[in-house]
Design brief:
Strand content: 15-25%
Strand order of the largest sheet: 2-1-3
Order of helices and strands: EHEHE
Oligomer: single chain
Distance between the termini: 8 Å
Helix content: 10-25%
Number of domains: 1
Radius of gyration: 11 Å
Largest sheet: 3 strands, antiparallel
Structural class: alpha+beta
Number of strands: 3
Shape: globular
């Protein structure tokens, strides 16, 4: 299964991930990605492309995606 990670130190609340990944990414009460600082989070297979797009859209490269072989 694939996983993604949002680096709390890098996330600057640009909100690009929310635009391209609305089913995966959502803001917390301060406008940052709600998953920032929560470690590696499993991604359902149907959300993998969305996770990749969210990672690619982040101007701070705060989002990483890995796929288990």
């Amino acid at each position: 299964m694939a996983k993604y990670f949002v680096d709390e130190a890098l996330c600057q609340a640009h909100a690009q991930c929310f635009v391209v990944g609305p089913e995966l990414c959502a803001p917390d009460e301060d406008g940052y990605n709600r998953d920032a600082g929560k470690g590696w989070i499993e991604i359902p297979p149907e959300r993998l492309e969305e996770a990749r797009a969210a990672a690619d859209s982040c101007p701070e490269t705060a989002i990483q995606v890995i796929e288990d072989a």
